[in-house]
Design goal:
Helices cover about 35% and strands about 25% of the residues. The chain is an alpha/beta fold. It is globular, with a radius of gyration of 24 Å.
C-alpha cells in the first residue's frame, strides 16, 4: 500500500513534525469534567498510544479530534486545521475507527467500502485500484461478498480500518481496535499500522491492552481528564527499576500467596503469572517483607524486569488489593462430584457449518479453567451449550453433576453466566435489572433484599441505580453484569470475555473477585483474549477451527512453544505458535 493521496484528499505537508497540537483542552458533560486543560502533541510518522483508566477522557479526546465534539475551552489543531473552525477539512484529513463497530452489518464487505467511499465524497466506480489496495492490505480480498455481520471480530476491525483509510488520511485515530480481537488478528492489525507509520502517517491507538501500549513509540496516559504521562513507554517503565519481583513455582497455593502479598503495606500490585506470583513494590518500600513471605512459603524470590503495566498501575496509586468483599461474604461451596463440568464429544452444527467439533474436557471443582482461541474458534458456542442455552448436535455435557440433556432447568439454577456481549435489559434501570435477576433465580423476601444490597455495595452501583445500563461507563456495565450472574451464589460460574475493553485497574478488581470465589470452592470457566489473564488460570484449553488443539497448564503450554526465536515464550507467543502449527500441518496434508 502506497502513501500517494487519493483524489480529493488534503495534500500532506511533510512526514515529520506535529500532526496534532492540543492546547488547554476542556470538555464537560454536566457535572463530569472529562478533559481538564489538556496539553499534548502527536507527531507524524509516529504510533502514539492513548491509555488510561475508564473515564479518563480517551474517547472524548478522540471525538474532539475528529470534529464530532466541540471543546468547551482550549484548542486542537490537526494537520494544520482547527478542529472546530475547519470541520470539513478535518473530516478529510482524518480517518476514524470508533470503539464500537460502526459499519453496516447487513451489507457486504464491498458494499460497506463503496458506501464509505461515497460518504467521503469519492466516486467508488473510479477507485477500483484503491479498493484492491485496501483489500490486499487488510487481507479481506477473499471475503468481499460476505456480510459484515458474519465476519469474525478481527475481520470486522480490518474492515473498519480499510474504511477509515479510504481517503488516505494524514492522521488515523483508532479507538480501542484490539478489543475482542484474538492475538493472531491483533498481530495483523499491528502489521498494518506499522506500515502506515513507516509511510509518515500519524496513528493514535487508544487501548486497554498495556502490552499494546508498550509497543508504541510514544504514549499519552490520561487520568481524570489530565495528562499523567507523555513520552516513550520505556521512560515510564524505567521508574520501576528494582521494584518488580516474582515468587517462583508456587503451584496450587498461588491465589493464597497472592492475597497474602497484596495485604503487605509495601506491595502496590500483584498478579498470578503461570505457576508463580508477580509483585510490584511501592516506591521506597523495602523488599524485606516479600523476602519473609517467600521464606515462609518456602519458594524462591527473583527480580524480574518491570513492565509498562507495572508502571501504569503504580502511577495510578496501585491495584485494588487482594481481598474480595463478595467472596468473603460467601460460605464455602460444596459439590458432590469431583468434576464440576464435563463434556464428551460436544458438537454443534449450524446447517453445514460446524461451530464446535467433538470437544471433550473436564473441569475440576474449585478450578479456574480458561478457554482460549482465535475469533470464531467455537469458544462462545461451547459456553452456550454448557450453560444450556444451545442444544448440542452431538455429545453430552454435565454441570454440577447434572446432565444438561435431562435437567437443563435444574442445572441453570446452579450456574451463573456472564455473556460476551452486555446482555442486560436496556429498558430497565440498574436497580430493576438487579431486581429482575434476583427474581429469575427464585430469591424473595429478606434474602432477595440482602443479596441486591450486597451487590450494590460490592460493585459501587449506588450512584447508578436509576440509570439505564447503556448510560454506565463500560467498567460499571461489566460490574452490573457480573453482579447479576452471581446473585444466587452459584457453585459454577461461566464468564465469557468478562474484562474485554475494561481498563487494567478494573480488570484486577474482577480477578480479585474471581480468585476469591475460587478460594471458596466456586468453579470458574472463563474465555479471554488477554493472554496475561490466561496465566491466572489453573489450566487452559485452546480451540481452533472448532477443535480442541491444546489442554494443559499455562506454563506447560508456554514450554511447548520454546524454540530458537522464543527461548522464553509468552502466552501470546504460545497461542500464535499453536495456531501456526495447525495451519502448517493442514497445508502439508493438502
Amino acid at each position: 500500500m502506497t502513501a500517494t493521496p487519493a483524489s480529493g484528499t488534503v495534500e500532506k505537508s511533510g512526514s515529520s513534525g506535529a500532526a496534532v497540537v492540543i492546547r488547554g483542552l476542556h470538555k464537560r458533560f454536566g457535572k463530569v469534567h472529562a478533559l481538564r486543560g489538556l496539553d499534548a502533541e502527536i507527531q507524524y510518522g509516529c504510533l502514539t498510544g492513548l491509555v488510561g483508566p475508564d473515564g479518563a477522557g480517551k474517547t472524548t479526546l478522540m471525538r474532539i479530534l475528529t470534529g464530532l465534539l466541540v471543546p468547551d475551552a482550549g484548542s486542537a489543531r490537526l494537520a494544520g486545521f482547527n478542529v472546530v473552525e475547519d470541520n470539513d477539512a478535518i473530516h478529510v484529513a482524518t480517518g476514524y475507527m470508533p470503539q464500537r463497530f460502526g459499519l453496516y452489518e447487513d451489507l457486504t464487505v464491498m458494499e460497506n467500502m463503496r458506501l464509505y467511499a461515497h460518504l467521503r465524497g469519492m466516486d467508488a466506480n473510479r477507485n477500483a485500484t484503491l479498493f484492491d489496495e485496501l483489500l490486499d492490505f487488510t487481507r479481506l480480498a477473499p471475503f468481499t461478498r460476505r456480510l459484515a455481520g458474519r465476519l469474525s471480530g478481527g475481520m470486522k476491525q480490518k474492515l473498519g480500518l480499510a474504511c477509515a483509510l479510504m481517503a488516505r488520511p494524514k492522521v488515523l485515530l483508532l479507538d480501542e481496535p484490539g478489543v475482542g480481537v484474538d492475538p493472531v488478528s491483533r498481530q495483523d492489525l499491528w502489521r498494518m499500522v506499522l506500515a502506515l507509520t513507516d509511510e509518515g502517517m500519524a496513528v493514535v491507538w487508544s487501548t486497554a491492552y498495556l502490552d499494546e501500549a508498550e509497543r508504541c513509540a510514544s504514549v499519552l496516559l490520561l487520568n481524570e481528564g489530565t495528562l499523567a504521562f507523555d513520552g516513550p513507554p520505556a521512560e515510564l517503565t524505567g521508574r520501576l527499576s528494582g521494584r518488580s519481583f516474582r515468587l517462583e513455582n508456587i503451584g496450587g497455593r498461588r491465589r493464597d500467596v497472592l492475597a497474602r502479598a497484596l495485604a503487605l503495606p509495601g506491595v502496590g500490585d500483584g498478579v498470578i503469572q503461570g505457576a508463580g506470583v508477580r509483585v510490584v513494590l511501592r516506591n521506597g518500600a523495602a523488599v524485606d517483607a516479600i523476602q519473609t513471605l517467600a521464606a515462609e512459603e518456602a519458594v524462591a524470590l527473583a527480580p524480574v524486569p518491570a513492565r509498562f503495566e507495572d508502571a501504569f498501575i503504580d502511577l495510578l496509586g496501585g491495584g485494588p488489593g487482594g481481598t474480595s468483599a463478595l467472596a468473603e461474604r460467601m460460605p464455602p461451596v460444596t459439590l458432590d462430584v469431583e468434576n464440576a463440568v464435563t463434556c464428551r464429544q460436544l458438537t454443534k452444527r449450524f446447517g453445514e457449518f460446524t461451530a464446535t467439533d467433538s470437544v471433550s474436557f473436564e473441569v475440576r471443582k474449585g478450578e479456574i479453567f480458561g478457554l482460549l482461541g482465535p475469533n470464531g474458534a467455537g469458544k462462545s458456542t461451547t459456553f452456550k451449550m454448557l450453560c444450556g442455552l444451545l442444544k448440542p448436535s452431538h455429545g453430552e455435557a454435565h454441570v454440577a453433576g447434572m446432565d444438561l440433556r435431562r435437567a437443563t432447568g435444574a442445572a441453570k439454577a446452579r450456574l451463573g453466566y456472564m455473556a460476551q456481549k452486555f446482555s442486560l435489559y436496556g429498558l430497565l434501570s440498574v436497580r430493576q435489572n438487579l431486581e429482575f435477576s434476583a427474581g429469575v433465580y427464585g430469591l424473595d423476601g429478606v434474602l432477595r433484599r440482602e443479596r441486591i444490597d450486597e451487590m450494590i455495595a460490592t460493585f459501587g452501583l449506588e450512584p447508578w441505580l436509576d440509570a439505564a445500563p447503556e448510560a454506565l461507563p463500560l467498567g460499571f456495565r461489566q460490574r452490573l453484569a457480573l453482579a447479576c450472574a452471581l446473585m444466587h451464589r452459584p457453585p459454577v460460574l461461566f464468564l465469557d470475555e468478562p474484562t474485554s475493553g475494561v481498563d487494567p485497574v478494573t480488570r484486577r478488581e474482577f480477578w480479585t473477585h474471581i480468585n476469591g470465589l475460587a478460594r471458596k470452592g466456586v468453579t470458574i470457566m472463563v474465555t479471554t483474549h488477554f493472554m496475561d489473564e490466561a496465566e491466572y488460570c489453573d489450566r487452559v484449553a485452546m480451540l481452533y477451527r472448532a477443535k480442541l488443539i491444546a489442554l494443559d497448564t499455562p506454563d506447560a503450554i508456554k514450554r511447548s512453544a520454546i524454540d530458537a526465536t522464543h527461548p522464553d515464550p509468552t502466552m501470546e507467543d504460545a497461542f500464535i505458535h499453536l495456531v501456526e502449527a495447525v495451519d502448517r500441518r493442514q497445508t502439508e496434508a493438502a
